[in-house]
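Milestone M4 deliverable, item 7.
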Amino acid sequence: DARTVTVGQRDVTIDIVLPVGVRLTGVVRSAGGVPLEGATVNLSDGRGIAAATATDETGRYTIAALPGRYTLDVFAPFSSALVSLTGRSVDLAIARTLDLALPDGEP
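Output delivered:
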């Protein structure tokens, strides 16, 4: 929550308390086990996207958010025959690892 603080012409000390976040890490692969570079990983809550990132060349992602319940969406990179994974519920109370496999879109 944002708050406006107005100070006059003198020095003021302000104590700011930042909430502690947690990390979600993992690897995104194809159904055949190939790591996917460039997949988009989103965490959303009732207000919209809370955090987002893309996988690196090894398919690894790291995303940080406040503790809570989120919806996880993983979108296939570029134009591919893989199906995106959407709507997975994730509870983040502590740091955790979640590896994901995107299913093939063609039989």
